[in-house]
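worker-03 picked up job from queue 'complexes'. Input manifest follows; two sequence lines, order preserved.
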Amino acid sequence: MSKATREPRHHRVPGHTGARGAVRPVPGFSLRRALITGGAWLVAFVFLAPYLQMLLTALKPGEELFRTPPTLLPERWEWSNFAEVWNVAPIGDHLRVTLIVATCSTLLVLLVAAPAAYYTARNAYRGRTAFLLLVLVTQMFAPTALVIGLYRQFVALDLVNTYAALILVNAAFNLAFSTWILTAAFAAVPRDLEDAGMTDGLGRIGVLVRITIPTALPGVVTAVIFTFITTWNEFVVALTLTNSPDRQPLTVGITAFIGQYEVQWQYLFAASLVAVLPVVVLFVFIERYLVTGLTAGSFR
Amino acid sequence: MTSQSAKRPGTGRRRRPARSLGPLPWIGPALLLIFAVVLWPAVEMVRTSFSEIALTGMVRGPAGLDNYRTLLAEPELVPVVLRTVVWVAGIVFFTVVLGLLLAQLLQQHFPGRRVVRWLILLPWAASVVMTAIVWRWMLDYFYGLVNGLLTRPLPLIGPVLDGPVDWLGQASTALPWMMWVAVFVSLPFTIYVIIAGLSAIPQEVYEAARMDGASAWQAYVGITLPMLRPSILIATVINIINVFNSFPIIWVMTGGGPASATDTTTTFMYKLAFVRNDVGASAAMAVVNFLLVLVVVLVYLRIVRKRGMEV
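worker-03 finished. Artifact:
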């Protein structure tokens, strides 16, 4: 089993970490190497800096924020900001909305995309190209581009300010990515393995659940995590389709800090970090499969 | 497989309803979701753009091209469209060029490469809204880190700026900063696509070139760039679509202001509907916006094809 799950990985990410790197002799100290190392770490710091600033600001007591010239480090490290933020704004509500919407959208995407991807990967049916093209076109329609139409549609359906609206929209616009990556993942599952399952009398659904999905697991996990993160971070649709704090996700909720008379940056960023940290950790897990998934559809 | 029996529904020993219906049970739910939540609002949007909409949101009746006329009569329209072109072209260009450079760098071997690659992912994983807000805070006139650092006296050269600058208060500085933030959040994806492209180039090609006495630069221009074409193409097209539709950065950092001096077609469209309450004109703007994206992507693909780049 472990061999079967591992093989498609190498297959789909050719030389990501590079087998050829091991062949090249690693020199001792050289100026070139020092420059590359320094340069790369400098770049990494530039990418980290805004989030570091987020953290340092979140740890300052209110009065330290408004100083000129601004200070870099907090003089007093106010860890209690992370506890206090739950009281100054309905962060708990926002977090609940974000969690519910992201979880349900992801489940819906999986439920809808997995059968479609599986069938498309395994069969040359009539309209297959048309289906893939349709999926590709939805990628062209970013939710932002359609936000006026979405708003009018959900007003007509009387679904404004509901979980259902957010779940449906997020699921629909994440369908393309998941369908692509799952189609690629299922196509990479060896047919013999499935045929063996059929012979053993598992039936088509049984084969799908017991053999195909476990074997295509890296692709499935990537689709799941990527959908979850995209929904978690979604802003425009939630901004447009919700109007009360108990239905607004974190992305919209934290902008409420800005509208107030004086921005409470320390709480704003404490809340932001609550939103950012979990998905960053998840993202690292799917790092190596991301590109395959994002580009697979474009080659078709 | 046992597909011969598929044409006779209900006769098999095992239940096979899926077989008799063909692909529909499998792809049907996906189609339903796409039609209900992507195509329906698209149609609704086009319909709205040709309708007269009351303030309550009710359709009063057909409006012909009235909404488009209102839009064209809008004095802000031309500057906004031109700014959008600069916005998209500038961001995509710098993203791809920097992406090529950084992918090359991260492809080298150095201590901590894994960690560096993880850190590069941060702006991709984190919410764009939150990234934009922290930049807004760093660019704050009084308390922002950027003004703080630039007005601090440095050894030998003194302070870079004599006094603080209101970076986000005027279009001439707000736009470049917001474009930078857009490049910043677009880079991780771009870098990863190009790294994947670089990894797929067989090493032997470079060895052969080295034998022939090609310099590193010649190898890059003669081998790496041509072989990266598919990756560059995908990165460019996806970035064009994303940047065209990028909304949170401008919305959070300047709100399109002062007045509408930093609006793009996307934020302008949003303001037409939800600030000025002119849903009809907003829908017209959205339709124009979508056609713009389509035209830009098609023109780009055409140029690329013309140059004989095989994809």
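worker-03 released lock.
The longest helix of chain A spans residues 91-122.
Chain A has 15 helices and no strands.
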